[in-house]
Amino acid sequence: MIKVIAACVIGAVLAGGATFMATSLATDSTATAEPVNETLYNYGDR
Amino acid sequence: MAIACEGGARGGAAARWAVRLLPWAVGLLAGVLVLGPALGPGYVLRYDMVFVPDLSLGTVLRGADGFPRAIPSDAVVAVLSLVLPGDAVQSLVLLAVFAVGGAGAARLVSRAPWRAVPAGGPVAGPFAWVVGGLLAPAAAGSAYVWNPFVAERLLLGQWAVLLGYAGLPWVVGATARLATARPAAGFAGLLRALVPAAVGGFSSVALTALTAGPVALRSDGAGGAGGARRGRRGRAGAGEAVPGVRWWGRACLFALALATVSLPWLLPSLSSGADTDPAGVAAFAARSDTPFGVAGSLLLLGGVWNSGAVPAGYGEPVTASVRLLLCLVALAGWVWWLCRGRPRFGTGLSAAALLGFALALLGATGPGRELLAWLIDLWPGFGPLRDGQLYVAPLALVQALGLGAFVRWLTGHRAPRGDDASDGPGGRHGTAPPGTGSLWRVGLAVFAALLPVVVLPGLLWGAGGRLAPVHYPGEWRAAQAAVAADDRPGAVLVLPWSAYRGPDWSGRPVVVLDPATKLFDRRTLWNDDLVVGTPGGGSIVVSGEDARAHRVAQALRPDPRTGLPERLDAGTLGALGVRHVVVSAPVDNQFWSGVEDLSVVVEGPDMVLLRVDEQHVRPNKAVIPGLEVTGGLVTVGAIIWSIARSGSSLVFQRSGPSAGSGARKEIPK
Fold it and tell me: What keywords sit in the KW lines (chain A) (predicted)?
């Protein structure tokens, strides 16, 4: 049982680390700008 | 649950409860992680997602001209707002999307009759249900609610569509059970599963029809009466032979259930006479938001038309490539499950996913756009086909279930061949402890179950802060109260003459449908034309459906740059049935100053409320359509009947074969 739990923890830690890296990547990249037309607002921009 | 059944003898009640509650826990946890700050006090405003304090039920029911898109979703919100604050209702609704969706997908995997690991397998014995029985459903649940489809629709504010999406696994399960259940029991179970779609309205029901319709026509493993009898005996456990429902019977029951939950919007829409602008085909077609083109983006469950609804970092080559790998693994898992397990809904759901993918691609090609425009010209009811990316929802379910199957495979469980469930859902477990050499598969299974989060971190914690709650300024509440206190009839005209705003008080620039369109307890007149920007700097205008709004535009002739009329005239406004004019954005010129018989009731930087002298107002009589109310009552009555018939709630319904004599009471669905 302990081995199974250890394997689960390792898998979760790996996933957490990968998420952290991907989050950094997502933060560094420029999010798509909100489509704002200064006076009136579009429903959205393609 | 398969493994839990045997766990009943071994692990006892705790294990069964863990398996029973896990699907909901996965969905709730995902919901909390995604929504984060959005669950706090205040209203999350974003594109189509507009919640206001004290939403008026009467106003929702009276509605506007055109297609009743806000029915019944806004009506349900208005009813809930009678007992809860509006922001609490919003939090509940958003959280329900994740809880219901995650739980539904997880249960479809956990109820499947997997065969257990033979002794000496990678993970066997008492560990088997821990890794296989919990991880695989968790993977399916997380994948279903943590993907680009959910992210983009959430960022587009389409919570009602997401509610219907959340109900899809439940409807698929209930539809598959039509083949083995008595007709009345199957119908009642289907109605219960359709509750989220019923609340979601037209788009949700259309999505449900696409996803579960093929399942109704084709349920594997119970294709004929014999199969149905086998299934029924398995459920009843007493050799009771019940005539199965053939495919046409299932199709009729499915269509009847869909029609029943659609009555609130179906009846008024048939008499609305609304037209759908074919220009929307080009505006709302799927687009590429990854390096893999439109088809690749749709395969990854992204591709929404609006570039402002893409989560941060999603389209980056690295994350998109890992996402593509995850999709391929999930599809491989699905094929493995189809070949080895033949789930009853397998063929039907696969067909739905393919059909949906083809529909989503239609708008991305020239001939496809022409076909869609022709169809919409032919009948406005084809209008929802414009938003092609919507129809990858069945593929999202396939990929989620496929990831669950992949995790099952990793942990060494084998799907049964065909209808072979002779060893019971739980099967026979080996008693050997896990081999050290195979423990890496457990770790890999945990990693795979969390992979949906890893490849889409932009959805974390309010989608990186893009879903943040705000409070309505005091002037807005004052205007709402002033209009409510006025006992003279007449509509509210909303200016500037444009549907979407970027309110300064929302903290950061967020485009949202003007909340003033829902704030007041009477008919509002606003510009329901939709303007969509194109990559070249141009724009596409999709004409609205409100005929009265068109008349207002013709009478006021607002400046297309500012959305404001040059001047207001109380007589003109009164002739249009307008009692109040709301200016719900900061404007430079006070075009209302000096106008006779037009008084300022509330004035602030973001909100001005003007009142037209009552002598000018010729109000249009707005009534609540009897047909709409009747349809709603029939739907509510049918849902109450289905719940009463089960003697239970959604939480405790079984969706799969009985786990055996040690299982809890079987409640047909």
Answer: Signal
CB contact under 8 A, B496 and A40: yes
Tally of domains in chain A: 1
Question: In 3D, which of B488, B485, B489, B486 has the Cα closest to residue B619?
Answer: B489
Residue of A7, A36, A42 lying closest to B439 (CB–CB): A7
Q: Is residue A10 part of a domain?
A: yes
- pLDDT at residue B582 greater than cutoff 50: yes
Cα–Cα distance measured from residue B463 to residue B299, given in angstroms and rounded to the nearest whole number? 22
Q: DSSP string spanning B551-599?
A: HHHHHH---TTT---S---HHHHHHTTEEEEEE-S--SS-TTTT-TTEE
Q: B90-99, B316-325, B588-597: which has the minimum mean pLDDT?
A: B588-597
Name the minimum distance, in Å, from the CA of B244 to any CA of chain A: 44
User: A16 is in which domain, residue-wise?
Assistant: 1-40
* B128 or B283, which is more confident: B283
pLDDT digits (tens, 9 = 90+) for B4-28: 444 445 556 777 787 788 899 999 9
Assigned domain for A46 exists? no
Q: What angle do CA B662, B663, B666 make, to 5 degrees?
A: 135
Check residue B509 and report its DSSP letter.
-
With an 8 Å Cβ cutoff, are B306 and A35 in contact?
yes
Q: Between β-strands B491-495 and B524-525, what pairing exists: parallel, antiparallel or unpaired? A: parallel
Cα B256 from Cα A3, distance rounded (Å): 52
Cα gap B194→B623, rounded to integer Å: 29
DSSP B625: -
Residues of B in contact with A32 (CB under 8 A): 307-308, 310, 312
Question: CA of A45: which chain B residue's CA is closest?
Answer: B533
Q: Assess: ipTM above 0.90.
A: no
